Protein backbone atom coordinates (compact mmCIF):
# COMPACT_ATOMS: atom_id res chain seq x y z
CA UNK A 1 0.00 0.00 0.00
CA UNK A 2 2.84 2.38 0.88
CA UNK A 3 4.54 1.91 -2.49
CA UNK A 4 1.26 2.42 -4.33
CA UNK A 5 0.65 5.62 -2.40
CA UNK A 6 4.14 6.93 -3.23
CA UNK A 7 3.58 6.10 -6.88
CA UNK A 8 0.27 7.98 -6.85
CA UNK A 9 2.01 10.96 -5.25
CA UNK A 10 4.62 11.02 -8.00
CA UNK A 11 1.99 10.81 -10.72
CA UNK A 12 0.02 13.67 -9.21
CA UNK A 13 3.16 15.78 -8.86
CA UNK A 14 3.99 15.20 -12.52
CA UNK A 15 0.40 16.03 -13.40
CA UNK A 16 0.63 19.29 -11.50
CA UNK A 17 3.63 20.40 -13.57
CA UNK A 18 1.73 19.57 -16.75
CA UNK A 19 -1.26 21.53 -15.54
CA UNK A 20 0.82 24.57 -14.65
CA UNK A 21 2.62 24.51 -17.98
CA UNK A 22 -0.65 24.37 -19.92
CA UNK A 23 -2.58 26.87 -17.83
CA UNK A 24 -1.43 29.92 -19.75
CA UNK A 25 -2.69 28.40 -22.99
CA UNK A 26 -6.11 27.84 -21.43
CA UNK A 27 -6.56 31.31 -19.97
CA UNK A 28 -9.51 33.07 -21.52
CA UNK A 29 -10.78 30.00 -23.39
CA UNK A 30 -14.29 29.35 -22.03
CA UNK A 31 -14.43 25.67 -23.00
CA UNK A 32 -11.00 24.80 -21.61
CA UNK A 33 -9.84 23.94 -18.13
CA UNK A 34 -9.48 27.08 -16.05
CA UNK A 35 -5.99 28.45 -15.65
CA UNK A 36 -4.40 28.63 -12.21
CA UNK A 37 -4.83 32.41 -12.18
CA UNK A 38 -8.50 32.25 -13.14
CA UNK A 39 -9.20 29.57 -10.52
CA UNK A 40 -7.52 31.54 -7.76
CA UNK A 41 -9.24 34.78 -8.77
CA UNK A 42 -12.60 33.01 -8.59
CA UNK A 43 -11.83 31.55 -5.17
CA UNK A 44 -10.73 34.92 -3.81
CA UNK A 45 -14.18 36.36 -4.59
CA UNK A 46 -15.83 34.03 -2.07
CA UNK A 47 -15.87 33.80 1.68
CA UNK A 48 -14.27 30.70 3.17
CA UNK A 49 -16.60 27.90 2.06
CA UNK A 50 -18.10 25.86 4.88
CA UNK A 51 -21.07 23.54 4.85
CA UNK A 52 -22.16 19.97 4.38
CA UNK A 53 -23.35 17.35 1.93
CA UNK A 54 -27.09 17.89 2.18
CA UNK A 55 -29.97 15.44 1.95
CA UNK A 56 -33.18 16.42 3.79
CA UNK A 57 -33.93 14.10 6.69
CA UNK A 58 -37.17 13.05 4.97
CA UNK A 59 -35.37 11.49 1.97
CA UNK A 60 -33.54 8.18 1.85
CA UNK A 61 -31.85 8.94 -1.47
CA UNK A 62 -31.60 11.30 -4.42
CA UNK A 63 -34.80 10.08 -6.08
CA UNK A 64 -36.84 10.63 -2.94
CA UNK A 65 -35.43 14.13 -2.70
CA UNK A 66 -36.25 15.12 -6.30
CA UNK A 67 -39.38 13.22 -7.37
CA UNK A 68 -42.53 15.31 -7.38
CA UNK A 69 -44.45 13.16 -4.88
CA UNK A 70 -41.72 13.28 -2.24
CA UNK A 71 -40.01 16.64 -2.83
CA UNK A 72 -40.17 18.31 0.57
CA UNK A 73 -39.54 22.06 0.49
CA UNK A 74 -40.78 22.56 4.05
CA UNK A 75 -38.12 20.23 5.47
CA UNK A 76 -35.47 21.67 3.16
CA UNK A 77 -36.32 25.17 4.33
CA UNK A 78 -36.26 24.19 8.00
CA UNK A 79 -32.98 22.32 7.78
CA UNK A 80 -31.19 24.92 5.68
CA UNK A 81 -32.29 27.30 8.39
CA UNK A 82 -30.22 25.24 10.83
CA UNK A 83 -27.29 25.63 8.43
CA UNK A 84 -27.67 29.39 8.23
CA UNK A 85 -27.77 29.66 12.02
CA UNK A 86 -24.32 28.08 12.38
CA UNK A 87 -22.78 30.05 9.52
CA UNK A 88 -22.70 27.42 6.80
CA UNK A 89 -22.66 29.07 3.37
CA UNK A 90 -22.30 26.10 0.98
CA UNK A 91 -24.17 22.83 0.50
CA UNK A 92 -23.28 19.94 -1.80
CA UNK A 93 -26.43 18.35 -3.24
CA UNK A 94 -26.83 15.26 -5.44
CA UNK A 95 -29.10 15.40 -8.49
CA UNK A 96 -30.48 12.29 -10.22
CA UNK A 97 -30.84 11.47 -13.91
CA UNK A 98 -33.98 9.31 -13.66
CA UNK A 99 -35.87 12.13 -11.94
CA UNK A 100 -34.99 14.35 -14.90
CA UNK A 101 -35.90 11.68 -17.45
CA UNK A 102 -39.29 11.11 -15.84
CA UNK A 103 -40.28 14.79 -15.68
CA UNK A 104 -37.78 17.17 -17.24
CA UNK A 105 -39.64 20.44 -16.70
CA UNK A 106 -40.84 19.47 -13.24
CA UNK A 107 -37.37 18.35 -12.20
CA UNK A 108 -35.80 21.63 -13.26
CA UNK A 109 -38.54 23.56 -11.48
CA UNK A 110 -37.81 21.66 -8.28
CA UNK A 111 -34.10 22.37 -8.69
CA UNK A 112 -34.97 26.04 -9.04
CA UNK A 113 -37.23 25.82 -5.98
CA UNK A 114 -34.38 24.30 -4.00
CA UNK A 115 -32.03 27.06 -5.13
CA UNK A 116 -34.55 29.70 -4.08
CA UNK A 117 -34.77 28.21 -0.58
CA UNK A 118 -30.99 27.92 -0.27
CA UNK A 119 -30.51 31.46 -1.51
CA UNK A 120 -32.97 32.73 1.10
CA UNK A 121 -30.64 31.25 3.70
CA UNK A 122 -27.55 32.77 2.02
CA UNK A 123 -26.29 29.36 0.94
CA UNK A 124 -24.57 28.57 -2.36
CA UNK A 125 -25.05 25.14 -3.90
CA UNK A 126 -22.62 22.65 -5.37
CA UNK A 127 -24.57 20.17 -7.52
CA UNK A 128 -23.39 16.60 -8.22
CA UNK A 129 -24.36 14.68 -11.37
CA UNK A 130 -23.01 11.10 -11.34
CA UNK A 131 -22.13 8.79 -8.46
CA UNK A 132 -20.54 5.33 -8.09
CA UNK A 133 -21.51 4.77 -4.44
CA UNK A 134 -23.84 2.21 -2.88
CA UNK A 135 -26.83 0.68 -4.73
CA UNK A 136 -26.51 0.07 -8.47
CA UNK A 137 -30.20 -0.48 -9.29
CA UNK A 138 -32.67 2.42 -9.14
CA UNK A 139 -36.37 2.52 -9.87
CA UNK A 140 -38.68 5.48 -10.32
CA UNK A 141 -41.52 5.67 -7.81
CA UNK A 142 -41.85 5.11 -4.10
CA UNK A 143 -38.45 4.44 -2.56
CA UNK A 144 -37.74 1.67 -0.03
CA UNK A 145 -37.79 2.24 3.70
CA UNK A 146 -34.40 2.45 5.40
CA UNK A 147 -32.84 -0.81 6.55
CA UNK A 148 -32.67 -0.69 10.34
CA UNK A 149 -29.30 0.47 11.60
CA UNK A 150 -27.63 0.38 8.16
CA UNK A 151 -25.68 3.33 6.77
CA UNK A 152 -27.10 4.77 3.53
CA UNK A 153 -29.12 1.62 2.78
CA UNK A 154 -31.09 3.32 0.01
CA UNK A 155 -28.47 5.55 -1.60
CA UNK A 156 -28.23 5.17 -5.38
CA UNK A 157 -25.46 5.05 -7.91
CA UNK A 158 -26.12 7.15 -10.98
CA UNK A 159 -26.28 5.68 -13.57
CA UNK A 160 -25.25 2.41 -11.91
CA UNK A 161 -26.26 -0.70 -13.84
CA UNK A 162 -28.41 1.35 -16.20
CA UNK A 163 -25.26 2.34 -18.06
CA UNK A 164 -25.43 -1.04 -19.80
CA UNK A 165 -28.91 -0.35 -21.22
CA UNK A 166 -29.28 0.80 -24.86
CA UNK A 167 -29.56 4.54 -25.24
CA UNK A 168 -28.35 5.35 -21.73
CA UNK A 169 -25.29 7.33 -22.80
CA UNK A 170 -27.41 9.51 -25.07
CA UNK A 171 -29.91 10.05 -22.26
CA UNK A 172 -27.18 10.95 -19.80
CA UNK A 173 -25.65 13.40 -22.24
CA UNK A 174 -29.05 15.04 -22.78
CA UNK A 175 -29.57 15.22 -19.00
CA UNK A 176 -26.23 16.85 -18.23
CA UNK A 177 -26.52 19.20 -21.19
CA UNK A 178 -30.07 20.29 -20.36
CA UNK A 179 -29.43 20.94 -16.66
CA UNK A 180 -26.16 22.77 -17.30
CA UNK A 181 -27.65 24.86 -20.10
CA UNK A 182 -30.63 25.82 -17.93
CA UNK A 183 -28.52 26.92 -14.96
CA UNK A 184 -25.19 27.85 -16.59
CA UNK A 185 -25.45 31.51 -15.56
CA UNK A 186 -27.14 30.97 -12.18
CA UNK A 187 -25.16 32.77 -9.48
CA UNK A 188 -26.80 30.67 -6.77
CA UNK A 189 -24.75 27.70 -7.98
CA UNK A 190 -21.17 27.66 -6.78
CA UNK A 191 -19.72 24.73 -8.71
CA UNK A 192 -20.67 21.65 -10.74
CA UNK A 193 -19.31 18.41 -9.25
CA UNK A 194 -19.57 16.15 -12.27
CA UNK A 195 -18.90 12.72 -10.76
CA UNK A 196 -18.84 11.59 -7.13
CA UNK A 197 -16.16 9.00 -6.35
CA UNK A 198 -15.67 7.53 -9.82
CA UNK A 199 -14.35 4.00 -9.57
CA UNK A 200 -16.09 3.19 -6.29
CA UNK A 201 -18.09 -0.05 -5.84
CA UNK A 202 -15.10 -1.98 -7.29
CA UNK A 203 -15.50 -0.27 -10.68
CA UNK A 204 -12.06 1.34 -10.67
CA UNK A 205 -10.94 2.30 -14.19
CA UNK A 206 -14.21 1.03 -15.70
CA UNK A 207 -15.61 4.46 -14.78
CA UNK A 208 -12.99 6.30 -16.82
CA UNK A 209 -15.07 6.40 -20.00
CA UNK A 210 -18.10 8.04 -18.37
CA UNK A 211 -15.83 10.39 -16.41
CA UNK A 212 -14.23 11.68 -19.60
CA UNK A 213 -17.60 11.93 -21.33
CA UNK A 214 -19.23 14.04 -18.62
CA UNK A 215 -16.34 16.50 -18.68
CA UNK A 216 -16.61 16.71 -22.47
CA UNK A 217 -20.37 17.32 -22.29
CA UNK A 218 -19.96 19.97 -19.60
CA UNK A 219 -17.15 21.79 -21.43
CA UNK A 220 -19.36 21.94 -24.51
CA UNK A 221 -21.96 23.89 -22.50
CA UNK A 222 -19.26 26.10 -20.94
CA UNK A 223 -21.10 27.20 -17.78
CA UNK A 224 -20.00 30.25 -15.81
CA UNK A 225 -19.43 28.06 -12.76
CA UNK A 226 -16.29 25.91 -12.41
CA UNK A 227 -16.28 22.16 -13.04
CA UNK A 228 -14.69 19.54 -10.82
CA UNK A 229 -14.67 15.86 -9.83
CA UNK A 230 -13.25 15.08 -6.43
CA UNK A 231 -10.22 12.88 -5.87
CA UNK A 232 -10.83 10.30 -3.18
CA UNK A 233 -8.79 7.07 -3.56
CA UNK A 234 -5.05 7.60 -4.00
CA UNK A 235 -4.56 4.18 -5.62
CA UNK A 236 -6.72 5.13 -8.65
CA UNK A 237 -3.83 6.58 -10.64
CA UNK A 238 -5.52 6.89 -14.03
CA UNK A 239 -8.71 8.41 -12.64
CA UNK A 240 -6.86 10.73 -10.27
CA UNK A 241 -4.66 12.13 -13.01
CA UNK A 242 -7.62 12.87 -15.27
CA UNK A 243 -9.70 14.40 -12.48
CA UNK A 244 -6.89 16.65 -11.27
CA UNK A 245 -5.91 17.87 -14.73
CA UNK A 246 -9.48 18.51 -15.87
CA UNK A 247 -10.98 20.15 -12.78
CA UNK A 248 -11.14 23.94 -12.67
CA UNK A 249 -11.01 23.81 -8.87
CA UNK A 250 -9.43 20.85 -7.07
CA UNK A 251 -11.96 19.04 -4.87
CA UNK A 252 -11.26 15.96 -2.80
CA UNK A 253 -12.51 13.66 -0.01
CA UNK A 254 -10.55 12.78 3.10
CA UNK A 255 -11.89 10.94 6.15
CA UNK A 256 -8.51 10.45 7.85
CA UNK A 257 -7.07 12.01 10.99
CA UNK A 258 -5.51 15.48 10.92
CA UNK A 259 -1.84 14.59 10.17
CA UNK A 260 -2.78 12.41 7.20
CA UNK A 261 -5.36 14.90 5.94
CA UNK A 262 -2.81 17.71 6.11
CA UNK A 263 -0.44 15.66 3.93
CA UNK A 264 -3.21 15.30 1.35
CA UNK A 265 -3.58 19.07 1.27
CA UNK A 266 0.15 19.59 0.92
CA UNK A 267 0.20 17.23 -2.03
CA UNK A 268 -2.80 18.72 -3.79
CA UNK A 269 -1.53 22.27 -3.34
CA UNK A 270 1.21 21.43 -5.85
CA UNK A 271 -1.40 22.03 -8.55
CA UNK A 272 -1.51 25.69 -7.59
CA UNK A 273 -5.29 25.79 -7.61
CA UNK A 274 -7.77 26.34 -4.76
CA UNK A 275 -8.86 23.29 -2.78
CA UNK A 276 -12.29 22.36 -1.46
CA UNK A 277 -12.70 19.29 0.72
CA UNK A 278 -16.17 18.11 -0.26
CA UNK A 279 -16.30 15.19 2.19
CA UNK A 280 -14.76 14.78 5.63
CA UNK A 281 -15.84 14.09 9.25
CA UNK A 282 -16.26 10.49 10.36
CA UNK A 283 -16.00 10.63 14.13
CA UNK A 284 -15.13 7.00 14.83
CA UNK A 285 -12.29 7.15 12.27
CA UNK A 286 -10.71 10.20 13.87
CA UNK A 287 -11.93 12.76 11.34
CA UNK A 288 -13.60 15.25 13.67
CA UNK A 289 -14.76 18.84 13.58
CA UNK A 290 -12.46 19.86 16.42
CA UNK A 291 -9.30 18.63 14.66
CA UNK A 292 -10.07 18.94 10.93
CA UNK A 293 -12.18 22.06 10.53
CA UNK A 294 -9.71 24.49 12.17
CA UNK A 295 -6.91 23.00 10.05
CA UNK A 296 -8.95 23.46 6.85
CA UNK A 297 -9.59 27.09 7.74
CA UNK A 298 -5.91 27.63 8.49
CA UNK A 299 -5.03 26.16 5.10
CA UNK A 300 -7.81 28.16 3.35
CA UNK A 301 -9.39 24.95 2.10
CA UNK A 302 -13.17 24.78 1.71
CA UNK A 303 -14.76 22.50 4.31
CA UNK A 304 -17.88 20.44 3.54
CA UNK A 305 -18.55 17.54 5.89
CA UNK A 306 -20.72 14.55 5.04
CA UNK A 307 -24.10 14.56 6.76
CA UNK A 308 -26.22 17.25 8.33
CA UNK A 309 -29.53 16.22 9.97
CA UNK A 310 -30.04 12.62 11.11
CA UNK A 311 -32.74 11.02 9.00
CA UNK A 312 -33.61 8.29 6.54
CA UNK A 313 -30.07 7.97 5.20
CA UNK A 314 -29.03 6.51 8.57
CA UNK A 315 -25.61 8.12 8.39
CA UNK A 316 -25.30 8.28 12.16
CA UNK A 317 -24.26 4.63 11.68
CA UNK A 318 -20.79 3.79 10.37
CA UNK A 319 -20.15 2.46 6.87
CA UNK A 320 -19.04 -0.95 8.11
CA UNK A 321 -20.72 -1.26 11.49
CA UNK A 322 -24.52 -1.75 11.27
CA UNK A 323 -26.57 -1.91 14.46
CA UNK A 324 -29.33 -4.50 13.80
CA UNK A 325 -31.68 -3.29 16.52
CA UNK A 326 -31.52 0.30 15.28
CA UNK A 327 -30.39 1.73 18.59
CA UNK A 328 -28.44 4.95 18.53
CA UNK A 329 -24.68 4.34 18.30
CA UNK A 330 -22.52 5.39 21.22
CA UNK A 331 -20.89 7.88 18.86
CA UNK A 332 -22.51 9.15 15.68
CA UNK A 333 -20.50 8.52 12.52
CA UNK A 334 -21.80 11.55 10.56
CA UNK A 335 -24.47 14.28 11.01
CA UNK A 336 -24.71 17.33 13.25
CA UNK A 337 -28.36 17.83 14.21
CA UNK A 338 -31.39 15.87 15.29
CA UNK A 339 -34.57 16.55 13.33
CA UNK A 340 -35.79 19.16 15.83
CA UNK A 341 -32.59 21.17 15.40
CA UNK A 342 -30.98 19.98 18.63
CA UNK A 343 -27.24 19.55 18.22
CA UNK A 344 -25.84 16.05 18.68
CA UNK A 345 -22.79 17.64 20.29
CA UNK A 346 -23.39 21.28 21.34
CA UNK A 347 -19.66 21.86 21.66
CA UNK A 348 -19.20 20.97 17.98
CA UNK A 349 -21.86 23.45 16.92
CA UNK A 350 -20.23 26.16 19.04
CA UNK A 351 -16.90 25.46 17.36
CA UNK A 352 -18.47 25.57 13.89
CA UNK A 353 -20.15 28.88 14.70
CA UNK A 354 -16.91 30.33 16.04
CA UNK A 355 -14.95 29.30 12.96
CA UNK A 356 -17.68 30.78 10.77
CA UNK A 357 -17.68 34.06 12.67
CA UNK A 358 -21.18 33.60 14.13
From TrEMBL:
Q: Which residues form the signal peptide?
A: 1-24
Which InterPro entries does the protein's record reference? GH
User: Source organism's superkingdom?
Assistant: Bacteria
Sorted alphabetically, the keyword list is: Signal
Q: Gene3D superfamilies this protein is in?
A: Glycosidases
Q: Protein name, please?
A: 1,4-beta-xylanase
Classification lineage: Bacteria, Pseudomonadati, Bacteroidota, Sphingobacteriia, Sphingobacteriales
